[in-house]
From TrEMBL:
Record Pfam families: Ribosomal_S2 (PF00318)
Phylogenetic placement of the source organism: Eukaryota, Viridiplantae, Chlorophyta, Chloropicophyceae, Chloropicales
Keyword field contains Ribosomal protein: yes
Protein name, per record: Ribosomal protein S2
Taxonomic superkingdom: Eukaryota
Residues annotated as signal peptide: none
Length: 217
């Protein structure tokens, strides 16, 4: 609990969503404060779920639009060998999976054939750069994910709707003003705290590192 409190996770925003009344203690200097025990229990519930996903060699898709968290998400996703999206959401990426899979296969084929040559000769083509920006984090996504992790629900509503439409379990970081009812695994806490995000994403990584691919299944 001390580690969680040290990340400034409890300090929320100036508003509280009615559905979060059970998760806050009150206000401090005009800011609502999350209950540390609610934060802890929401995180533990999510970690148990992710551990199950990792144990059966499942896939989680990290979805982030906040530039502040891009390096952290890229590092953690790479450690876990999981895909990530950190650009504007492409409509139909999940709901039109057959088309997405064809595009990913095309990108992989092009990269395998020409990627090294382009890098060695410092060549850049606008179409290739657009494909690289859009698909590079998705190379390990070979089927619909077993869960989607949203670092900010407010910035990723289109992706969230697609995940819900397909009944893909959702994990979402929630500040005090956000509605938790549609999120399968809400994690309460300050969404603008880099310390808190670092703490949680490291915990996510440990779930997958605990089960090397040879021990999954």
């Amino acid at each position: 609990m001390e580690e969680i409190l040290g990340t400034q996770a409890p300090l929320g925003g100036q508003r509280v969503h009615p559905k979060q009344a059970h998760a806050v203690l009150g206000q401090r200097h005009s800011l609502w404060v999350h209950d540390g025990e609610q934060i802890r229990s929401s995180l533990l519930r999510t970690l148990f779920f992710l551990q199950e996903v990792a144990q059966r060699d499942g896939t989680v898709l990290f979805i982030n639009r906040n530039p502040l968290y891009e390096p952290l998400v890229r590092e953690v996703a790479s450690m876990c060998r999981q895909p990530h999206v950190q650009t504007k959401w492409t409509a139909g990426l999940l709901s039109n999976w057959d088309q997405t899979q064809r595009q990913l296969d095309h990108y992989a084929s092009f990269t395998n054939r020409y990627g090294d040559w382009l890098d060695q000769n410092d060549k850049s083509f606008p179409m290739y750069l657009r494909m690289q920006k859009r698909f590079d984090g998705l190379k390990s996504l070979r089927s619909l994910p077993d869960a989607c992790i949203f670092l900010s629900l407010a910035d990723n509503q289109a992706a969230f709707r697609e995940a819900c439409q397909l009944n893909i379990p959702t994990i979402g970081f929630l500040n005090t003003d956000m509605n938790p009812t549609k999120v399968d695994y809400p994690i309460y806490g300050q969404t603008q705290s880099l310390q808190w995000m670092h703490y949680v994403l490291e915990s996510f990584a440990l779930c997958f590192l605990k089960y090397p691919p040879s021990e999954r299944g």
